[in-house]
Amino acid sequence: MAFMEKLISHYNVLLKQYNDLIVNAFDDKDFFEYTENLFTAHSCGIEGNSFSVNDTRELNEKGLNAILHNKSLLEAFEILDHFKAYEFAFSNISQPLTESFIKELHSVLTFNTLKFTKNSEPGEYTTTDMAAGDTLFGDHKQNIALIPKLLEQTQLTMDKGELHPMLISAKFHYHFIYLHPFRDGNGRLGRLLSNFILAKKQHPLVIIRSEEKEKYIEALKASKRHRDTAPIETFFFETAIYRMTHEIAQKKNLTQNFFLKLKPTQENEEKKKLRVR
């Protein structure tokens, strides 16, 4: 069995366990909020936002009334905008991938932050060529012209149901990131849209942890170097497997530790006998 086939098989087995032990055991609203906080903190963290998961949860619960030390208002608005975009996307889960949808989603995602970026407008494509770090993204007009085709092909592939949802999500992510159609917010929007694709197929979100930023970027660059999306596909699968494995283990360990604390040890029982004598 080839490496990717093994990875897919491992993921599929784990997915059933994860749904049984985690997803189906939660109240839908509680699980939505848990995932929203986790995804928002890490996706914004990849872009340099300093909010921790706990900071993000507090902001979600209290809004700008939250007491957050050493945090900028711009960071808070970025998190709050991400909450709104997340909720907009998943309240429109039956919506097909179209230009109007991704533009509206981008508008929500950057509503309070893009105003600080020169020559930019929420929900509108860039009017200049783009670069990030050591990467040049090519002619912006040519890139933008390819967006409708990317959306159409991705939607068609989803509708056919022949390709694993994780592969669709990863392939889309790679192409969207390198087309880089907006002035800002492409990374956050790309991760949100990739998870929108997964959620449409009832798969859990791929939450790329902020501490995995370098591995994530390298997977994208490796895919570009080799003209093959296998590196980013592998990264997506491994990231999803890590999350499911970690959360399943966390639940089992907490449950086991609880009962271990309740169970009297032999030493404690012997001490009780001595006191009785």
From TrEMBL:
The record marks E47 as: Important for autoinhibition of adenylyltransferase activity. The active site is at H180. The keyword DNA-binding does not apply. The keyword ATP-binding applies. GO terms for molecular function: ATP binding. ATP binds at D184, G185, N186, G187, R188, L189, G190, R191. Signal peptide: none annotated. It holds the Pfam family Fic. Residues 97-238 form the Fido domain. InterPro entries: Fido, Fido-like_dom_sf, Fido_containing. Transmembrane segments: none annotated. Keywords: ATP-binding, Nucleotide-binding. This is Putative Fic family protein. It comes from Elizabethkingia anophelis. The gene is ICEEaII(10)_JM-87_30570_31403.
